[in-house]
Amino acid sequence: MALVGALAAGCAQSHAPELASAQSSLRTAFEGAFLVGAALNAAQFSEVDTVGARIVKAQFNTISPENALKWASVHPRPGTYEFAAADRYVAFGERNRMFVVGHNLVWHQQTPRWVFEDSGGRPVSRDTLLARMRDHIGTVVGRYRGRIKGWDVVNEALNDDGTLRRTPWLTTLGEDYVATAFRFAHEADPDAELYYNDYSLESAPKRRGAVELIRRLRDQGLPIAAVGLQNHDRLDWPSPAQEDSTIDAFAALGVRVMITELDVDVLPRGADPFGHGLPDSLQQALARRYAELFGSYLRHRGTVTRVTFWGVTDRDSWLNNWPVRGRTNYPLLFDRDGRPKPAFAAVIGTAPAMQGRHD
Q1: What is the pLDDT of residues 94-153, one digit of tens each?
Q2: What is the pLDDT, as a whole number, of residue 326?
Q3: How far is residue 175's CA from residue 164's CA, in Å, rounded to a whole number?
Q4: Active-site residues: which are they?
Q5: What's the CA gap between 250 and 160, in Å, rounded?
Q6: DSSP code of 123?
Q7: Which of 93, 152, 263, 271 is the right S-S partner for 100, CB 3.0 to 4.6 Å?
Q8: Three-state DSSP class for 41?
Q9: Backbone angles phi, psi at 93, to 5 degrees
């Protein structure tokens, strides 16, 4: 049985007609509108997780690495690079003819302390940190030149008020560290797309800061191809108007928008009331929410060129352990057993091909 058909058979009976009528994958449903992808963990791109790998190959045409290319994973010690996992990730994407994304090069988290400190634990000089940044970006991007097609160069550089976050990068290198990172990445692979990636850009103060940052970078002649909106969303935030205005703000700068880390948190903050399963009322609310989000993305086709979920199934999601370890969350389109949820049918139903069937 084809994967989508098998998955549909496992879904709740009340949703079987919608899934049966779709008989489609996300990648084919949105062909011509935007790429659809997922962030993969090591078990998926090494195909140890056979269910997850099968969903990825059937549903998606672009992939991002959850952790395999972060500094702590690929460059854990001075002078030591560990590329085995990253190599498997890239090879998986190539075997399956996917658009392969690199995530990420410069971030204040999951970057070892040695990057910013000398052997005595004191902050390094500006020249030393610049050399370490250049070496890291040149080595990692250079290794996958022509194979990884797009890079999240700088990740989460802004505070919620739109000012630059006071990270060791900013403290040691000054405000031009962001431009420098993009310059190094472009030198390492002039053909790769380069992205700035952040969360909560739908909040007006942070969006204003991001718009100004991207404007400054482009005024310097840096080839910023797109802004990544992470879209770690909730059932009630952001509103469609906030999503639309955010995409429009970056489109006005002449850059594309990519939805890079999509999921929807269905739990109340600080509570875990659904450890034994999500009630049907919330399954339906999640489905409506995803349909609403994809409606916004489709209204901006041409500007929005990629939508990537942060995880493959609910079992994989980082939201199971955030902000308190042990939480059980349900933020994605596929449940813990790899079966499509009502949200899957709702997303498929927004696709241009499906809209034609309903008219």
Answers
A1: 999 999 999 999 999 999 999 999 999 999 999 999 999 999 999 999 999 999 999 999
A2: 79
A3: 8
A4: 156, 261
A5: 17
A6: B
A7: 93
A8: coil
A9: -60, -40
CA distances from 290 to 107, 133, 274, 280, 357 (A): 29, 38, 20, 15, 20
Residue 10: CB partners within 8 Å, gap ≥ 6?
A: 337, 339, 340
pLDDT at 64 over 50: yes
Radius of gyration of the chain (CA): 20
Q: What pLDDT score was predicted for residue 15? A: 40
Please compute the mean of the pLDDT values over residues 37-45 and round it to a whole number: 98
Q: Which two tokens stand for residue 297?
A: 């993305």
Coil/strand/helix, residue 228:
strand
* CA separation for the pair 242, 201 (Å, rounded): 9
- Residue 287 clears pLDDT 90, i.e. is over it: yes
Extended strands (E) in the chain: 35-40, 62-65, 99-106, 150-155, 193-198, 224-229, 232-234, 256-265, 304-309
Give, in degrees to the nearest 5, the angle at Cα 358 between 352 and 359.
Answer: 90
Which residue, 341, 275, 334, is CA-closest to 310? 334
Give the span between the Cα atoms of 33 and 229, in whole angstroms. 17
Q: Please report, in angstroms and rounded to a whole number, the separation of the first and last CA atoms in the chain.
A: 30
What is the three-class DSSP state of 257?
strand
In this predicted structure, the answer to whether residue 86 has a pLDDT above a threshold of 60 is yes
User: Which tokens belong to 190?
Assistant: 């002039």
User: Does the pLDDT of residue 10 top 70, yes or no?
Assistant: no
Structure tokens at 244: 């639309």
| 224-229 and 232-234 strand pairing | unpaired
Name the residue among 62, 60, 65 with its Cα closest to residue 4: 60
From the list 247, 252, 339, the residue with the least C-alpha distance to 294 is: 247
Cα angle for residues 56, 202, 27 (degrees, 5° grid): 20
Cis peptide before 240 (omega within 30 of 0): no
pLDDT at 327: 85
> DSSP class of residue 252?
T
pLDDT at position 20: 30
